[in-house]
Amino acid sequence: MCLAIPGRVLEIVDERNRLARVDVAGVQRNVNVGLLDAVDAGDWVLIHVGFAMSKVDEEEAQTTLGLLQRMGEAYEQELEDLKGSAIG
Amino acid sequence: MKYVDEYRDAELGRALAAEIVATVEPGRHYKVMEVCGGHTHTIYKYGVDDLLPANVELVHGPGCPVCVIPMGRVDDGVAVAHEEGVIFTCFGDMMRVPGGDGTLLEAKAEGADIRMVYSPLDALRIARENPDREVVFFAVGFETTAPSTALTLMRAKAEGVRNFSVFCNHVTIVPPLRALLESPDLRLDGFIGPGHVSTVVGARPFEFIPADYGKPVVISGFEPLDLLQSVYMVLRQLADGRCEVENQYKRVVPYDGNPQALAVLAEVFELRPHFEWRGLGFISHSGLKLSEAYRDFDSELRFAVPGVRVADPKACQCGEVLKGVIKPWECKVFGTACTPERPIGTCMVSSEGACAAYYNYGRFARERVVV
Lengths: 88, 371
Prior knowledge:
The complex is a heterodimer. Chain A is an alpha+beta fold. Helices cover about 30% and strands about 40% of the residues of chain A. Chain A has a domain at about 1-55: SH3 type barrels. Chain A is built from two helices and five strands. By secondary structure, chain B is α/β, with parallel strands linked by helices. In chain B, about 35% of the residues lie in helices and about 15% in strands. In chain B, helix 2 (about 35-45) links the parallel strand 1 and strand 2 (about 55-65). Chains A and B meet through strand 5, helix 1 and helix 2 of A and helix 2, helix 5, helix 6, helix 8 and helix 11 of B.
């Protein structure tokens, strides 16, 4: 749960509850974007326990993703946990 | 420099390592604490410490949320999980954390309905799907994670989800740092400040470290090069006779933090008078509980939480490890009785824990590669 993992926003799916569909390394799930000002499709965000914590540029997102992928088990576990998520 | 070739920019890595050598006074021993468990993980994965001169020592701090949960709170969680009709939810990392009376994983094997969730919003979804059950979320984490619990509670309240509650174990980063600075056990020269916590609280809350204790702080990113640069920035401040809060992770951390996150924290939580930390004892105003406006969602008011206090196991030296007083390999049970498969202490449970990082990257003894 300690990781912040980059994902790309695909679309806002629930304006009232501030939920967005994101793509994290090919896994598509809903996350809450209520901690950020304005979020649009195409934005990259750092996601922690189902919440977007901050917006980052694409270079930062890719670098962070590369770092996490080299972490091995902790990253694999985070993706597995994310796959089990069904925020609605 | 066995790992530097794997860095994003190996040339920059070598240049920084050379700058560090040129900056330190040869006769002086430097102790720099990296507060965050994520930083500890990167340091050992990439051998960042191998690039440092022998007189620059990295000391690992208390910034691993799973590691600082005292055994009694795990026992309290297990007790709630065993209550009739309860679905107990927690992050996967918490399942193997030992309490005085076993783990949540063992309680699940005994028949308690304990479910791992990725997000507190998944716990709230489970509550909606099971209106005849009581759903409890075991909330842990620093200011990085607490806003997520806060927004989840705000939504539960707005939707009137009455069978959902939070067993709150959120903690704040500044009080344990102040406790460490007041501790006579440890003489630190400076701090590598946490990255993710700072996206929420900003860099400003760390200003007390230079102001009251005269020591530099550099908020750092998570890449090996970020950490190397942050170590350099701390040493540079020391060489220049400066002490201030610098932000190496400006690309993500605003100096004043995230105002929305700080606002929801203020709405949903209030400080407890004191909270127990594993190995560090009770620290004043270091833990969060639900505010008066959210008391209907407080598991501690809804259930008979035993309020267990359990002394840390005698053999385990997680407390000294969390304070940076000893290195993991100096603990008597490290790598023998205590391993990631069968952990005694929390620092071995979480992959962010210093003991697990040392164990997983084969740091069993003091030897360092000579630069």
